[in-house]
Design a protein that fits this description.
41% of the residues lie in helices and 21% in strands. It is of the alpha/beta class. Helix 9 runs antiparallel to helix 10. The relative contact order is 0.15.
Length: 283
């Protein structure tokens, strides 16, 4: 059996950590996996430390909030050298029995695979479309403009690929809520780009995996439950702004030619306006 380690990044997530670490330890094949809990300078560090130590996980308190990518990088530095695979996950995830083993088995039979994602269920048991296409300019704008008011619009359907969640397949990118990464390839790619404080670090990783000639493999036979964005729910306005800022960063980098400067300006203004609209509508 391939050696697997686990890295999770917490922020005021002690309550969620109980379920996550308990599900890891209950896993039939990987209950003894080396687990690293990184706390991103939250106010609940001591509570998180208590939970982590109770479950036999190593605890790394950071002095400042480095975002998801930065937290993952800090945790990865503590992973044993013999770990071929690393499960990178939010703490508000519960791993079902055999999920990790199923991801590892898929990785072992996929020589070009770099990142492997499970089927993700929400708290109500509905499938979250976690294996998506990398957004083009057209689909990105269409999804941003109509995704909330017209969920079945053709741009969102193309981007989210939510009608294709039952078969194992390659994807443009996989949700960073829970991923199994082949460690050497993840490291070779530089891991998550830490300039994405929150959101789109997984989209960016997926695009770089494909550009490197490797694959992002969706493995629906492996199942996890994502109970919700626990830490981000505490500051919805800031997180919406961060989401739109990251969306602009990703698209502007894909369309970086000098003669596309007017397009980047339109994207910046449009995404900023959308962020304001979304935050106001949530009041």
């Amino acid at each position: 059996m391939s050696c697997v380690a686990v890295v999770t990044v917490a922020y005021d997530s002690a309550a969620a950590l109980e379920g996550f670490l308990g599900s890891i330890r209950a896993s039939e094949h990987h209950g003894d996996a080396d687990v690293v809990v990184v706390d991103n300078a939250s106010s609940g560090q001591e509570a998180a430390r208590t939970v982590a130590e109770r479950h036999g996980a190593r605890f790394l308190p950071l002095p400042d909030n480095r975002g998801y990518g930065g937290g993952v990088a800090a945790g990865l530095a503590l992973v044993p050298d013999d770990a071929e695979y690393v499960l990178v996950s939010n703490p508000d995830v519960e791993v079902r029995p055999d999920a990790i083993a199923t991801l590892v088995a898929a990785a072992d039979r996929t020589p070009l695979g770099a990142v492997f994602g499970p089927r993700i269920l929400d708290a109500d048991g509905q499938v979250y479309p976690s294996a998506r296409n990398v957004p083009s300019l057209r689909t990105g704008i269409g999804h941003a403009a109509f995704g909330r008011m017209w969920p079945s619009n053709p741009w969102s359907l193309r981007y989210k690929a939510e009608r294709d969640t039952d078969r194992e397949r390659d994807a443009g990118w996989l949700s960073g809520a829970c991923l199994l990464v082949r460690r050497d390839r993840f490291v070779a790619l530089g891991g998550f780009d830490e300039s994405y404080f929150m959101y789109f670090e997984d989209v960016d990783l997926g695009a770089r995996v494909t550009a490197a000639g490797w694959t992002n493999r969706y493995v629906p036979a492996a199942v996890v439950t994502h109970t919700g964005a626990h830490s981000t729910a505490q500051n919805v306005r800031r997180m919406e702004q961060e989401h739109h800022r990251s969306a602009y960063r990703f698209l502007s980098r894909r369309y970086r030619a000098w003669w596309l400067a007017p397009l980047r300006l339109v994207l910046r203004v449009g995404l900023a306006a959308r962020a304001r609209w979304v935050t106001r509508s949530q009041r």
